[in-house]
Write a structure and sequence with these properties.
- Helix 1 (7-31) packs across helix 13 (240-258) and helix 7 (129-140) packs antiparallel against helix 16 (324-352).
- Helix content is 77%, strand content 0%.
- The chain has helices spanning 7-31, 33-40, 44-72, 74-91, 98-112, 115-126, 129-140, 142-160, 163-184, 196-204, 211-214, 227-237, 240-258, 267-292, 297-311, 324-352, 355-389, 393-418.
- The protein contains 18 helices and no strands.
- The two termini are 39 Å apart.
- It has one domain (7-203, 224-420): Up-down Bundle (Growth Hormone, Chain: A), CATH 1.20.1250.20.
- The model is unreliable at 209-213 (pLDDT under 50).
- It is mainly α.
- The longest helix has 35 residues, at 355-389.
Amino acid sequence: MGKIRNYRWIIVVLLFLATTINYLDRQIIGLLKPILEKEFVWTETDFARIVMAFTAAYAIGLLVFGWLIDKIGTKAGYSFTIIFWSVAGMLHAVARSAFGFGIARVGLGLGEAGNYPAAVKTVAEWFPKKERALATGLFNAGTSVGVVVALILVPWILSHYGWQEVFWITGALGFVWLIFWLVFYDIPVKQKRLSSEELHYILSGQEQENNEAEKQPVKWIKLFTLPQTWAYITGKGLIDPIYWFFLFWLPSYFASTFNLDLKKPSFELMLIYTATTVGSIGGGYLSSRLIKRGWPTLKARKTVLLGLAFCELSVILIQFSSGVWMAVGLISLAVALHQAWATNVFTLPSDLFPKQAVSSVVGIGGMAGAVGGILFPILIGSLLDSYKAAGNIQAGYNIIFTICGFTYLVAWLIIHWLTKTPKVVELEELQ
């Protein structure tokens, strides 16, 4: 079999495509919200409960899949998770009530939870530390590309078919990806397409664990005794709910505030979610650049995170927008900064833990983010329903944007306090 140069970047392409499909599938409900609200007579609170059903299942799924993928490996684990969420995505088409959509969202949340534990573990297996943030940023760009694809694909399907076909068609994409994953993926030491030079480059840039220790299972519960785990939990638990707000409520925000027609492709929303791609790759590039210049890994990550937290205060200014394009500019900046933050936080498990525990830590932190994603919609739904009843829904959005702006600094302070003494967890500590 012929050797392929820089094969590790082909792996990143696969991760990027999986993440794109992941976010395409989860974004559909937000784009169809105005249509489904009319057909099934939903309130904002009904929609919030549907979002909460997804995030509750996502929280459980992250724990389960994080543990499972560390047990059975990335190839089998990723295959299982994408089959699970693709089937659940297609089953939305048969739902006929808010409760039915909630059940379908539970299935989608459980399955989609496996994406990030599998992807981050794959990066830890395939990349030296100095390249991990960039690789993470590249595959994490799939979050925004998936949303942009949804903004183009969903109106097109609606113009030719109905909302049910949106779920059938997009759900089937996961099975197409699965074919390429099974053909092209294996861990580096088993990948016959990988050159010996690239294998040496990958392995030489990774922490070398004791061979005997590698054979021993990680005691999952011990992860909760470590400040490094809680630093990651903080970075995900406080910040993930903000992006979920951007993901699920922005289409409705622009529809209610600026009369945007979501039955047509929205250039405004495309621009916003495209900005997240720039942030995702740029955030990974910044910290990777500092590490290549000789900065300690954790110092580089935290320095970039601090700068992003200060810049994110600009989201508060959205409430003073005088027109749609000013709002688009400010929100584009906000989501780009968020994705830059998320990229650097995603690298923390592979920076601070042995690769045998990476997927589990990602699952734990992701669960924290999902729990926040359960609680935050309660506040969002309550605020928006209250202010909508008073005839001023914009005031409800203004309060939410202000909360979002300050949360990044709070999260950074806690992360910094928990990692004041930069220490990489040894595998023996987890056995």
